[in-house]
Amino acid sequence: MPAPDGRLWITGGSFLNTTEFVSPGTAVEGPDLPGPLRFHCLVQMSSTTMILIGGSTEPGNFGPAFAVNTTYFYDIASQTWSNGPELMMVSP
């Protein structure tokens, strides 16, 4: 995901809550996600706000991953996360 300043923003993965901003020859630690996630989506909604959508989390001991129904808003100026609306979950 491109960060608002043009760097590549790498978020989560393999049940991590860490992020990094990457530009040619440089990687800098970014803000932590609200929790460990993988398979999530991060979308820039405006010049001031991004939204983190869904994903999955692992309960531990390499057990099965569980989909989450959470969303979070990221305020670019304050670099803080806040809760967004819950997603509707559909059973298979």
Structural class based on helices, strands and sheet pairing: mainly beta
Strand content: 35-45%
Spatial shape: globular
**What is the β-strand count?**
9
For the largest beta-sheet, the strand count, sense and barrel status come to:
4 strands, antiparallel
Strand order across the biggest sheet? 4-5-8-9
Could you give the distance between the termini? 30 Å
Rg to the nearest angstrom?
Answer: 14 Å
Number of domains: 1
Tally the helices. 0
Q: Can you put this structure into words, describing what you see?
A:
A hairpin with a 4-residue loop joins strand 8 and strand 9 (80-83). The protein has strands at residues 8-11, 19-23, 26-29, 41-44, 49-53, 56-57, 66-67, 71-75, 80-83. The mean pLDDT is 84. The strands form 3 sheets. A 4-stranded antiparallel β-sheet has the order 4-5-8-9, with no helix packed on it. It has a 3-stranded antiparallel β-sheet with strand order 1-2-3, with no helix packed on it. A two-stranded antiparallel ribbon has the order 6-7. It contains no helices and 9 strands. The chain has one domain. 0% of the residues lie in helices and 38% in strands. With 92 residues, the chain is mainly beta.
